[in-house]
Design brief:
hpI Integrase, Chain A; mainly alpha; three-stranded antiparallel beta sheet; 2 domains; DNA polymerase, domain 1; 305 residues
């Protein structure tokens, strides 16, 4: 007797006649749910409605766009319809679940190309150009909140190891992986930073203005909006847009939901589940394997060989 997932694969391929890409997407979404359930010692076959509802709520709490949530739920519903059809289960746990409202207002999600366009719009001939490039790379490469970005200190950067110590909500600290591109751009910005006359008490802040003072929140919003405008992007772009894009791109490229939660510094919204410990090495591996920019770098390295 075939394992249920293998049987489901054949069902999608031959009975539903779906394309290989569609089947891969369905199975990828199912793996996301499976990984989430395994933290609570549950399986796809034993999951109940409340467990799957919590999973969808978790996606929402991570800032995953409603369209992506709806697509994932559609894949999950397809699997449970199959289980009913094949008499593997009696009750469908997704029957009463409604798809997220697509009209729900959330920050826009940028494509990888749009982020490239924003980076390309930065004028590196200006004194603040290199700083702004480092800011965008950190926002998108690590998914930081604005407050976390502004709170970065030189003493909290571990460039050789590829991590930074970030202080999130409630003064809770976490180690966050840094992309190779962010490390490079921060290094270049530090060279420009050393040419500033830094005000007393601001020596350790990473991002400074021209006067050598710590950057303020409204300046980050201004930088982002001006760059989006220069790049010809008409979406409502804010610093938080990069955070949502970071989470959505990781999820759509196969990242573990729990890893994304750890990377974003989110507290769990459920209290009844048992969570496994995720160390920083696993988080770095997740970003390396699932972030679009890392994946592109790997492809470029292969082309050079």
């Amino acid at each position: 007797m075939l394992p249920i997932r293998d049987e489901y694969h054949l069902y999608l391929k031959f009975e539903k006649a779906l394309s290989d890409n569609t089947i891969e997407a369905y199975e990828s979404d199912l793996l996301k749910l499976s990984g989430y359930l395994s933290d609570a010692h549950l399986t796809l076959e034993t999951a109940e409605t409340n467990h799957i509802r919590d999973f969808i709520i978790e996606l929402s709490s991570l800032g995953i766009h409603p369209r992506s949530q709806a697509r994932i739920l559609s894949s999950i519903k397809s699997f449970y319809h199959f289980l009913i059809y094949k008499n593997h289960i009696i009750d469908d746990p997704t029957e009463l679940l409604e798809s997220p409202k697509i009209g729900l207002r959330l920050p826009e999600i940028l494509s990888v190309q749009e982020i490239d366009d924003i980076v390309g719009a930065i004028d590196l001939s200006k004194k603040e150009g290199q700083r702004n490039k480092a800011i965008i790379e950190v926002l998108y490469g690590s998914g930081l909140r604005v407050s976390e970005l502004l709170g970065l200190q030189l003493s909290q950067l571990y460039m050789d190891e590829g991590y930074m110590l970030v202080e999130g909500k409630g003064s809770k600290q976490r180690l966050v992986p840094m992309s190779p591109q962010a490390i490079k751009q921060i290094g270049l910005w530090k060279t420009d930073r050393n040419c500033l006359t830094i005000k007393k008490g601001h020596e350790d802040w990473l991002f400074l203005n021209r006067r050598g003072s710590k950057l303020k929140r409204d300046m980050i919003f201004k930088i982002v909006k001006e760059l989006a405008l220069l790049a010809g992007i008409r979406k409502n772009v804010s610093p938080h847009t990069f955070r949502h894009s970071f989470a959505t791109h990781l999820l759509e490229n196969g990242a573990n939901l729990r890893a994304i939660q750890q990377l974003l510094g989110h507290e769990s919204i459920t209290t009844t589940e048992l969570y496994t410990h995720i160390d920083v090495h696993f988080l770095r591996k997740t970003v390396m394997e699932c972030h679009p920019l890392y994946k592109r770098m790997k492809e470029l390295e292969k082309d050079k060989k």
